[in-house]
Amino acid sequence: MNTIPIAGVHHTARPTWKLGETVHFYRDLLGLPLVHAISARGWGPEEHADFLHFFFDSGNGSTIAFFYYIGTQPPEFVTVRDDYRYRASHTAWRVETREQLLECRAKVEAAGIPLKYQIRHEVIESIYFDDPNGYSLEVTWQVRPFEQIDREDAARTLAAAIALEQQDFTRIDQVWSTKGAMLDAEFAGHGEAA
Amino acid sequence: MPTIFVLDVPEFQPLVDHARGLSGCSVQGPRLGYWRVARAGALEFQRKALGLKPAVWHGALTGGMVGRITHFDNDRLVVEEA
Predict the structure, then answer these.
(1) Is A175 exposed, middle or buried, given 0-12, 13-18 or 19+ CB atoms closer than 10 A?
(2) Does residue B23 contact residue B14 with C-beta atoms inside 8 Å?
(3) Which of A72, A84, A192, B16 is the most exposed place for a label (fewest CB within 10 A)?
C-alpha cells in the first residue's frame, strides 16, 4: 500500500472570536503551554483580515491552534450548534493509561470546566468537554492497540457500506446484512482452514 | 437460520460466551477473525446480562448478521429468521 510519509498530528486549527477566553482556557485551565504566535497583516488573494495565529502544545509534538481575525464578526457558518453532527468535528487527545484519563477528568472538573460525558467505547474510553468557543474536546485512552483483525473488519464494513451508498441506504441493518451474507459464504467456503 | 458474526476481540467476547450457553446454539470459529453464532428460531441477547456498555451494545452486530432484527433497544436484542 502506498502511504504518504507523515508522522502524526502537527496541529489542528479553528477560528476564535474569544481571544482572551481561549488563551485562558487552554493555557491556564488546561495547562497547555502557549508555544508560538504569529501576528500578521492580512495577506493573500482575497480580502483577508489582519490576524493572530497561535499554538498550544498538546504533547508528543502536537499542537492545537487558533486564528483570531481582528475586527471581524463570526460568519454564520461557524455558529456553534447543539447537534451531534456539529460535535462530530472535535479534537481528541491521547492519554496512555486509564489513571491518566481519570486524572484529566479530575483536573477538568477542578478547573470548573463542565464535564459532558465519560464513555467507554469499543476500544477507547473517553471524557468530553467543550472549550469557550463551543468546540468539542475529548481525552481518550485506547484500551488495546488496533490489530490486523480490526483492519480487516473495517475493510469489510466499509466495503459493504460503500456498496450501499448509491442505493436506498437508510439503516445500519443493511450493512450488517450485506456483511453477514458475504461472511456466511466465506465461512462456508473456508472449511477447515481456520 | 438467524446468524450473527462476532469479531474475535475482547470487547465482543461476552456475546460469544453467552451464546455458548444457549440451548440449540451453534458457535463456530473463530475463522476469518469471526465467531459464527447461529440458532434456529431466534438469537436473543440482553445488554445488562452481558455487561456491555451502551456504546458497545449498539454496535453488537457490527460483525454482520443473517436474519432480521425484530427487537433492538437499550437492553434487548433479538434476531430472527429473515
Answers:
(1) buried
(2) no
(3) A192
Does the interface predicted TM-score (ipTM) exceed 0.95?
yes
A-to-B residue pairs, Cβ atoms closer than 8 angstroms: 86
Q: Which chain A residue's Cα is nearest to B12?
A: A122
Q: Which CATH number fits domain A8-72: 3.40.50.300, 3.10.180.10, 3.40.50.720, 3.30.450.20?
A: 3.10.180.10
pLDDT tens for chain A, 194 residues long, are: 678 999 999 999 999 999 999 999 999 999 999 999 999 999 887 789 999 999 999 999 999 999 999 999 999 999 999 999 999 999 999 999 999 999 999 999 999 999 999 999 989 999 999 999 999 999 999 999 999 999 999 999 999 999 999 999 999 999 999 999 999 999 888 655 44
Task: Please provide the CATH number assigned to the domain covering A81-145.
Answer: 3.10.180.10
Best of A179, A182, A186 to substitute, by most chain B Cβ atoms within 10 angstroms, is A179
Distance CA A176, CA B59 (A): 10
Give the containing element (helix H, strand E) for A176.
helix A172-190
The pTM (predicted TM-score) of the whole model is 0.90
Q: Under CATH, to which class is B3-80 assigned?
A: alpha beta
